[in-house]
Amino acid sequence: MPKKIDFLVVGSGIAGLTFATKASAYGKVLVLTKKRKADSNTNYAQGGIAAVFSPKDSFKLHINDTLKTGAGLCHKDVVEMMVKKGPVLVKELYNMGCRFSLNSDGEFALGQEGGHSRRRIVHARDHTGQEIERVLLEEIKEKGISLSENEVVLDLITIDGECRGVYFLNTNNKEIDVIYANAVILATGGAGQLYLHTTNPPIATGDGIAMAYRAGAKIANMEFVQFHPTAVYNINIDGRAFLISEAVRGEGGILKTKDGKPFMKRYSPAGDLAPRDIVARACVMEMIKSKSKYVLLDLSHLKTGFIKKRFPMIYEICLEWGIDITREPIPVVPAAHYICGGIMVNSWAESSIKKLFALGECAFTGVHGANRLASNSLLEALVFATRAAERMQRITDVKPPKRTKTQPVKTGPNLKFAIKEMMVQYLNVIRSEKGLKKAKQMVEGYEKAFEPGIHIINAESCNMTDVAKLIILSALQRKESRGLHYLLEYPKPNPSFTHDTVIAKNGQ
Ligand code: SIN
After folding, report:
1. Could you say which of 334, 365, 382 is where a domain stops?
2. Distance 226 CA to ligand 1 centre (A)
3. Can 327 be counted among the known catalytic residues?
4. Looking at the domain assignment, is residue 434 inside a domain?
5. Domain range spanning residue 428?
6. How far apart are CA 480 and CA 474, in angstroms?
7. Ligand 1 atom having least distance to the Cα of 47
8. Residue 109 pLDDT
9. Which of 260, 278, 413, 437 could serve as a FRET partner for 379 with CA atoms 20 to 30 Å apart?
10. 32 within 8 A of 153, measured Cβ to Cβ
11. pLDDT in the model for residue 406
């Protein structure tokens, strides 16, 4: 492992890898990843990338759909920039070899998802993320970019208000080691593992957000945790709930009560294609009403050949678990899927700490507002990774310090399950102020188990505790219901509360 690198990337999803391939034009890049290189949220993304390609579509419509779904909190200028840059970057991926699904005219076959007024989801059948990950990893190899697996990054090194590198666990001698860098790029993904039921893989423990918070970076809008309405009930694969893509409803799938009655039209004129916050809440309400542990997603009325061709992975996996989706409905439940808040960055992905950048799900760029529009996340990652890479031309070379302050090494308890239970009980789809206050007390107790210092044993528990605290504190600040944050005591949006909730450790 080098002692110093130009650009150090933590995380190997679409954001980290896109950045690495592009920034390699300006300096040496090292990518560190916690588990295996393809263990990222990107790899499990089924839906696709939202971008304007259809003649019936326009930038204006995509921008409006994003703003409407974001429930008044999206940063319009950033949304406009992202939407306009989308098509070129999607084409770039295609030209790199991404096998996106095409129609009979050889153009992108565009899927439909909730909140979109037009078909605009570029996809590779139902395994888009996996296909993108494959192509980007090939590109990394071709460009000779170093990527190291099983590397546990523990904390950021900040000197004089600048990020200068990271502390990481040297797996050879089990000691804390350092790598200095001219710029550090956090692309660590989400925090779905804070919940018992999540579509995210086990790596998604909010590490980047927690590290940036501990280093003093501003963190915003953490109360907006997006629940995907349709994870299969009781099917867990490698530590994550199995997702049924929203594209299934886009192609005509219908949500039904346990006794077979469609219900979404009662909650929104857009029915099954309403934005995700509305659909997830509707599913929970129906489950409560019928005292059922799940609702049903039915696509058995669609043609068998079409289902097998359009959703081959979903078909195969459900079949392995005894559900033939061409003949019977799928029992589904909402599961934690995406965190809309994160490390606050500007439109170049620069955080409030100099030389610290954040990309993808761990970043808060302002584009998702109070509820992310489906398939805007891969797009956001592509756009901001590209801009951050351009920014590397301006990064100056900094000599590593002679000696970095040694950090005391700590061990801590494994609190993962305690946190998951707390989050499910008090920070789920429907919340109450009383519950949030109780959760605050609980997390303050958990925090005491982690004295200041770097935790090499149970570092993930330490990170999850910090991220849980950020979600609770943000949720307590927002005394209204908006987008993904639904509070029983304040069931409506407050028109005067259209600002982001921002938290920083030093209180600035
Ligand atoms: C899905 O395929 O439903 C997930 C897409 C997304 O979260 O954007």
Report:
1. 334
2. 11
3. no
4. yes
5. 408-507
6. 12
7. 2
8. 97
9. 278
10. yes
11. 67
